[in-house]
Amino acid sequence: MRAHAARRARRVLARAAARRGRSPCRRRALIPSSCVCGFARTGGAAAQGVSRPQRRVPADGELCVATATNATNTAAEHAPVGGISRALLDAGVVTPEQLAYAERVRAKLGVERPLFDLLREIFSIGDARLRDALERQRDRLKLGELLVELGYLRQEFLELALSIQRDEKSKGERRRIGEILIDHHLIDETKLAEALAIHLGFPLEAPGLVPLDAALVAELSADACERHGFVPLRRHEGRVVVAFSDPMDPDAVAAARAAFGADGVAPAIAERAAIRAALARLAGRQAPAAPVAASPSTVVDLLDEILDEAIGAAACAIHLEPRADGIALRLREDGVLSTRRVLPLSLAPALVHHLRVLCRGEDGSDVTHFVHRSGAQTCEVRMASCAIAHGERIVLRLLDVGATPASLDAIGASPLLLGRLRAELSRPSGLLLLASPPGGGRSATLHACLAALAGANTALAIVESPGARRFEGAAQFVRGRDRERFADTWLRALAQDPDVIALDEIDSPESAQAAVAAAAAGRRVVATCAAEDAVGAYLRIAGFGVDRPLLASALGGVLAQQLLRRVCDTCAQPDVSRTARRFEQMLLEPDGRFLAGHGCAECRTTGFRGRAGVFELLGIGDDERRRWIAEHASGDSLRAASVAAGVVTLFEDGVARAARGHVSIAEVARRLPPAADGRSLAEILGRTGR
Ligand SMILES: [Zn+2]
């Protein structure tokens, strides 16, 4: 018997391993593998909604597998026997040894499997025997525990529901655990009813489809029926069939028995909404409207759906903002936030809790990110939250960690600028600054520059913020990890003997000084910085207290950029707006027109699809160095001088792209710093090659 069971257990383990290999879990395992016992995952911290898997010492009088079997295996030690296990033990369906054995197999599986399934599989216990045992013991089982043990509900969701129940109780409200689970979308009501019907043998009823016996309801008050969530349906073989929304709620069962006699009740199960509707119909009232259900039935499905939707729309961030009327779900697409829909506010606690569970490190530590797989795409999701009036405001930033960096040709720069940028990159030393406003695409351009520099003869080191894309073949260093000082991270990167060292981004005096010092010492440094344009980037670095002559001598060039929304190809039409008319005289053809999208299904009526980059490259020659060293040089005078030296500004590059119909002229006028006295379009096109 024992050898037979061991063979079966080996097969179970092998199948679990094969499953892991074949279709990797959509997310990393939620439960640390060091946690050995599914029944030992309740913790005191659950009350605060910050539960963490931890082992629980059995309470006094609680049966424990280890004590029941004298097993010496430490894994099963102190694992308290849950409701189902105890029921199966008491009914004589399993022996304590079998139970302990199944526990140990489960501990080794590494994937979550309900103990119930394992017992069935390893010891070939038939469904009928299990159901019979549970049916006989069902008065002693607790709904939440049962759902967890059967694998219908996660332990942490049960803990959340219990903490909500405790909170409500302290305020004098009383709700059944089943109600809380359904209201907070922690379990699908149909699934719950099915689970109880399948495993406990409660017949599944549909009170809406059968005529009710008014005389039966009259024996109780309709209020009592509604309060306890049940409705008597009919007499059958001397008993009254009563449909309960939670047939395991002792108070509800007691109320029904008080009316129809201790042995006079045949409990059945039905969905709560159906019970309410039937009672309302009987009282001649309109059936209450069903609550607006989000299409996915649980928060797990809902979050998966939201993440898939955002990834499908190529959004870079998801905003979940609780308001008085619900949670606004907004996506940032092409740099602009748009509201997708409003979710029921009742989802908020479960959704936040679920996200917190996902953002839990393998070792139980709190981190701020998790991995989500959508089709072939793997995204890192970084979460930030803050408390506002109606709950917690959540921002999830999505990062396609598996994406390969774009090539320089794909960043959208004009052909002539690209040629000058390549020349700039080929210099053996000096600092190349990449500047853009936040969200302007400078980090992507940094990776494109590094991809152009990478090669068999080049060693790359990148110092960047957490959550950056992976870069094949480069030594990547995350800033601020484990509270490491910037200077130490920078030294570790330099110790890799890099030919090119990249810094994303210069945002402090020490990062500015480190980058400039390394460039002045003869290294090739490529760094990003947040600034409106090229001169702004220079002034920002100088503003960090870097010695101006040193900065001017180390700086090789500044590439500034901005991303504009691209006009939707499908619905682009001549732009007749006032802004367009103001700029029209710049166009070369007398009857030429700028283009703008008017909205179609392809662009979800926004008129925009995708983004287009505009660029400005400031090469630093001797003239610039002399000018820039002067302490008093203002931004305006430096900008005027750079235009005079032939630099095409961001605005002018934007006008060139608008003239080509890539972006709307209104977008150019709104998003880019205006040029002083612009050049003619012909001259701009000549200087950019667009
Ligand atoms: Zn369109």
Report what the structure shows.
The structure is a single chain. This protein is an alpha/beta fold. The chain has four domains: about 1-195, no CATH class; about 200-280, Type II secretion system, protein E, N-terminal domain (GMP Synthetase, Chain A, domain 3), CATH 3.30.300; about 300-400, Beta-Lactamase (2-Layer Sandwich), CATH 3.30.450.90; about 415-690, P-loop containing nucleotide triphosphate hydrolases (Rossmann fold, 3-Layer(aba) Sandwich), CATH 3.40.50. Helices cover about 40% and strands about 20% of the residues. The protein contains 28 helices and 18 strands. A seven-stranded mixed beta sheet has the order 12-11-13-14-10-15-18, with helices on both faces. Strands 6-5-4-9-8-7 form a six-stranded antiparallel beta sheet. Strand 8 and strand 9 (about 390-400) form a beta hairpin. Helix 4 crosses helix 5. Residues about 20-80 and about 290-295 have low confidence and may be disordered. The structure holds zinc ion. Zinc ion binds near residues 571, 600, 602, 603 and 607. Zinc ion binds next to loops.
